[in-house]
Amino acid sequence: MKRFGALFDLDGVLVDTESIYTRFWSETDRLYPTGIDDYARYIKGMTLTKILNYYSTPEIREEIVRRLNEFQAGMEYPMMAGAMELLEELRRRDIPAAIVTSSDSLKMNRLVSHQPQLRDMVDHIIDASKVTRSKPDPQGYLLGAEAIGVDPENCFVFEDSFQGLAAGRSSGAMVIALATTFPRKRIEKEADADIIIDSLAGFGVDDMIALARSISRL
Predict the structure, then answer these.
(1) Which of 73, 96, 187, 195 qualifies as a cystine partner to 148, CB 3.0-4.6 A?
(2) Rounded to an integer, what distance in angstroms lies between the CA atom of residue 167 and that of residue 130?
(3) For the whole model, what pTM was predicted?
C-alpha cells in the first residue's frame, strides 16, 4: 500500500475556535470598516500578515494586533469532536500527520499550553512563521507534505475554509472539507473537495483509504 499522510488545518478542523474568531473579526470590522461583505468569514484561512493588508494605516494595524493578542490570551481551545480520536488512530497506524495553519507561533504556543497532548499527536506544525504566501496559495500544504516525507498527491488535506480548500486542491492532495464553518450546500457549490463531512467524529483511516480508492489514488 502507498504511504499516506494527513495534513490538518487548525481552527474549525482540530480546535473549535472559528465561531470565536468570527465574533472578534466582526467586531473589528465594525470598528475599522473594510467595506468587504461578510469580512469575518472572507478572511478565514489567511495569515494575520495578509489580513492586516486590508487596513490603511500602521496605527490601525498595531491596534488590531494589540486587540488580537489580548483576545487570544484569554481564549479557550476546545478540541473538535473526533479530532483526538482520529489523530490517535493515525499514530497507531503509522500514518504521519502535520498541522498546516495560518496561525502565528505565539498562538500555537498558547494552544499547546491548553492542549499539550496535541503536540505529541502530530509530527510537524507548519505555522505562519514558516510560510511566505498565505492560503489559498498551496505553499503551506506543500511544506507540510515535505515535512512528513509524503508526496502531496498521497496526502489528505482536512480543511473548513474556502481559502484552505483551494490551497489543498492546488497542492495536488486529496481534499476533505469539513462543514463546520460553512454550510455543506455552500461548500458543494463554491469549493472543490473530494468529500464533504460534517465532523471528524466517526471518520477514520479506513474512510480515508476508501476515499483514495474512489478517486483512483490507491
Answers:
(1) 96
(2) 16
(3) 0.91
